[in-house]
Amino acid sequence: MLKVENITKYYGNFLAVDHLSFEVKPGEIFGLLGINGAGKTTTFRMIMGLLDANEGTVTLDGKKIDYDVTDQIGFLTEERSLLVKMTVKEQCLYYGILKGMKEKDILERMDVLLAKFGISEYREKKIKELSKGNQQKIQFITAIINQPKLLILDEPFSGLDPFNVELFKQEIIEMAQKGSMIIFSSHRMEHVELFCKKLVILLKGKPVIEGYLSDIKEQYRKKNIFIKGDVSKEELEKIKGVIMVEEHADELEVKIEDNDVVPRVFNQIKKKENITKFVVEEPSLNEIFIAKVGESFEE
């Protein structure tokens, strides 16, 4: 288990991370989120042992993270960290050897991953000759070449099309099923919702939202109703408890205060003709993120 306990980090007088705590168990995919400058990168560096916390501790299976432990960690950074004059094979060997792997094992693992991501033909190609999407695949492969116990993914889907996002997603889920602990960070909330049952959202180094995603959505209370049919935006806006109504291409999205408003909306439209859709949905994580981070800025 990864345990982050009460970590705090100052840069001079600037407080970057403020008494942050969370746990990630084997097989869990944990979301660490926030706007730019929220403290995510500093937190990653403290977890990796690249920065010392001013207060608090980080342990992996009860041990302080140092060079004896880092061979069990994989890290995909948001910025490209590839050595572009190397070939794909040379790059994989370089990272694998840094993680204490034998050359034979590195090459076997590399060939499996290249085939999985459909780029076996680039084995002897230089990194600089690859497209941005294929470079991202190589960066991901080098991060997981050692089959890490702990994997940190910072914007892993950058530069990928939907097909390749799905390939990455399948590999991440497979690693979690085999027991890896995964920390996932992205500005794309819909990607976070694909994976993460637990998460923390940071603002100015401090959590503004934390816990299980299902509980966070339930506590937020506000819901959305999607309606298709012969009903006007104006009449829905008059219903008590309706916050706003948004028009989409072929449906209306009705944002409501809580579940108590659902019967009122339903009673308003039940006698209408041609109602083909009435669906109550939880708010998206993106909606909650914007609302909660906005509230924190205003306080």
What does this molecule look like?
With 299 residues, the protein is α/β, with parallel strands linked by helices. The chain has 2 domains: 2-217, Rossmann fold (3-Layer(aba) Sandwich), CATH 3.40.50; 223-282, Alpha-Beta Plaits, CATH 3.30.70. Helix content is 35%, strand content 28%. The chain contains 10 helices and 14 strands. It has helices at 40-48, 88-98, 103-116, 132-144, 162-177, 189-195, 213-220, 233-237, 262-269, 285-298; strands at 2-11, 14-24, 29-34, 55-60, 63-64, 73-76, 150-154, 181-185, 198-203, 206-212, 223-228, 242-247, 252-256, 277-281. The strands form 3 sheets. A 6-stranded mixed beta sheet has the order 6-7-8-3-9-10, sandwiched between helices. Strands 2-1-4-5 form a 4-stranded antiparallel beta sheet, with helices on one face. Helix 5 (162-177) links the parallel strand 7 (150-154) and strand 8 (181-185). Helix 2 crosses helix 3 (103-116) and helix 2 runs parallel beside helix 4.
Short characterization:
About 35% of the residues lie in helices and about 30% in strands.
Poorly predicted tracts of residues:
none
Q: Write down the secondary-structure element order.
A: EEEHEEEHHHEHEHEEHEHEEHEH
Using only C-alpha atoms, the radius of gyration works out to 23 Å
Overall structural class, as computed from helix and strand content, comes to: alpha/beta
Question: CATH topology of the largest domain, anyone?
Answer: Rossmann fold
The count of helical stretches stands at: 10
CATH class division of the largest domain: Alpha Beta
Between the first and last Cα atoms, what is the distance in angstroms?
A: 35 Å
How do the strands line up in the largest sheet?
6-7-8-3-9-10
> CATH superfamily of the largest domain, please?
P-loop containing nucleotide triphosphate hydrolases
> Helicity level, as a percent range?
25-40%
Strand content: 25-35%
* Total beta strand runs: 14
Strand count, sense and closure of the main sheet? 6 strands, mixed
CA-based shape:
globular
The count of domains is 2
